[in-house]
Design goal:
By secondary structure, the chain is of the alpha/beta class. The protein has nine helices and seven strands; from the N terminus they run H-H-H-E-H-E-H-E-E-H-H-E-H-H-E-E. It has one domain: Vaccinia Virus protein VP39 (Rossmann fold), CATH 3.40.50. Helix 4 links the parallel strand 1 and strand 2. It starts with 9 loop residues before the first helix and ends with a strand. The structure holds S-adenosylmethionine (SAM).
Amino acid sequence: MTGNALEPNADEVLAGAAVYSKRPILAAYDLWVLGFVCSRVWHCPNVHMRRLYDRNVDARHLDLGPGTGFFLDKARFPGGDPALVLLDLNADALRRTGARLARYRPQAYQRDVLKPLDLGAARFGSVGLNFLLHCMPGGMAHKAVVFDTVLPYVEPGGRIFGSTVLSHGVQHGKLAPKALESLNGDGVMNNADDSFEQLDAELAKRFPRYRLWAQGSVGLFEITVV
Ligand SMILES: C[S@@+](CC[C@H](N)C(=O)[O-])C[C@H]1O[C@@H](n2cnc3c(N)ncnc32)[C@H](O)[C@@H]1O
């Protein structure tokens, strides 16, 4: 599947999240992916994402695709006791993150972020989608639908923020091209066609106030909803 606008089928969407049910992957994720791979392969140490969280999280926060909950666990929430909602397609990821963040008594919803989220009257001051887009199949135009599905739940002045590994339009280190090829081949990542320019175009279409920048192979963004 190639191209910016291509739409994946339902099995491909499920497969993009299913990999996070595998115990060895979940167990190794924080140390291996967020530790070694972020810094040595993507040249974007996780401190960049931790700063993104600390700068943008609100006391009412929605996290899309929380994975193991690493960044939420480390984040400094204003007031220290946030109303936290976790949303993921993968029930194992929700269970694991829910247990890790039990101190915040999070609510959890099993949902596909590309479909209507059905969160009722809930409204949030911040929404995080970190390392989510690069897992999702389809072209960037299709992945970016997540910004439309979440927007009705964000208050004016609220923040939408996150990061994603990109294949094109960023400065890769030596190890990144082979890693991208292998992780896309295994279906762990789905970003072989994703570019900085496509992500920029999708953000520009929707938001008058946003910032997108690259750190190594990673595109980081923060949006202020008007
Ligand atoms: C790479 S992990 C990111 C985890 C975490 N946000 C981080 O930065 O470490 C991607 C997460 O997105 C979830 N996911 C993938 N596709 C999804 C979809 N279509 N809808 C909802 N969640 C999805 C996966 O189950 C997984 O928990």
